[in-house]
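for ur thesis appendix - Small-conductance mechanosensitive channel. copy paste whatever u need, i formatted it the way the template wanted (i think)
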Amino acid sequence: MDNFQNFQHTYGVQLEPILGAIALLLVGWVVALLAGAGVRKLLSKLNVNRHVNSSTGHHTDIEHIAGRVVFWFILIIAVIASFNLLNLHAVSAPFSNMVNEVLLFIPRVLSALVLAVLGWILATLARAGITRLLARTTLDERLSADVGVQPLSNNIGQIVYWLILLLFVPMVLSALGLNGLLLPVQNMVNDLLLFLPNLFAALVIGFVGYFVAKIVRNIVVGLVSSLNLQSAAAHVGVKNTTSIPNIAGSIVFILILIPTLIAALDALHIEAVSQPAIRMLDQIMYAIPNIIAAALILIITYVVAKFVAGILVNLMAGTELDRLPAKLDMQRFLGSTNLSTIIGKLLVFFAMLFAVAEAANRLGFVQVSDLITIFIAFGANILLGVAIFIIGFWLANLIGDIVQRGRYNYSLWLANVVRMLIIGLVLAMGLRAMGIADSIVNLAFGLTLGAVAVAFALAFGLGGREPAQRLLDDMLTKAKREANKPTPPTASGMSNADMDAPLSTSFGSPVGSPAVSPIVSPSETTPPTGTDNELILPDNPDDPINPLR
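the 3d part is after this line
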């Protein structure tokens, strides 16, 4: 008994605070568990997790986090009370200061939480109301069908939702006393509030302009369809797959929409964005008249060219011009295509070239216009060269046929040679008229003629040596004979009797007897004897070796 009293007297003073601290800590732990569970149950009944996750799009367990925060906060308070009961103020002081700061901050947190919940409720109600209001209209269906966008009611509802939450952010930060974050957020919200009227005006201008452009487009499509321009376009060669009413409606739609976009961008008052876009749209607007003029030039030229080409083809078909290639033996080059059809297509082609050049000038494409002009000049040269080819080939066939009709064994060979020579000359003339490498054509033609001349010279020089030698020998023999002839008597050496002699000595001989010439000796009037220097005529004039045949 004495020992117990001594133990109680010695340690009783210290044991009571320890037991009290332990009991207080246990009670605080139990209270913390109950409070954390209660907060978690309360938030679970309010479906806080579902609402927050549906709003933010992220899965966060807010209920569990809030319960754990309450649990640790109460437990820390119990620990501080236990340390104070044990008189461990040096240990409990930091925790006490922290709890005091938290307790002082709790009213701000509660006020910020109330503001956040209020903003969330307002944002949710506004989103639901706007979504339901727009869902009752047919705006979503029209925009989805015409523009291909998502339902507009959901987008506008989300925009309003986040806008309201953004407006509550500065109030929440102000309630928390976070001035370092409050200033930039407040400036951003102020700028946004100043920009909202401009944005709203731009959206209104854009939507109104879009719907007006759409209405006018439908009117133009109906008007053009009633004019039956599609069938008229089909007569001039426009395919039915090209819808003339839709093209006209789209042009009018663009003409209305571009000024609308310019006005909408101007209403934003964002110089860095609106000015470049406005300048670009202004340039497009200035170019639209030239574009329309260029399109009209092309369309009118095509229609007129097709019409004139059709008339010309019919006229040429009536004049039997299509039979001309057959008469010139050139139908094989055209195949089954008629000459009048080719001429009509060439007319349309060159007319469209001129139209494209003029349209390029209207659009300011000078390089394209110059290129087409050069191509037109080259096309004219091509046509001139083709005409030279046609006439030359016709002449080659004509002259070749004339030569081939001759009664010679080598008529066919000579006709082919004549044709080749004429065709070669015509090719050179045609290529030169086309302007295709004049120097190359001249060089090739000169080299060809030079080669023919050299070949002829070599053939005559090498193959005709013996005939040339015989010809020279004959010439020398005749020259020697002439040199050895006796000199005839002159008039001064003749007697008077000779002068007075009757002419009967030369002309009075009877028929059948040869007359004796007073100048040529009888030996020189003998018929040919067949020597090498005299021509021997064959007995048969139809002999194949007869050179006169």
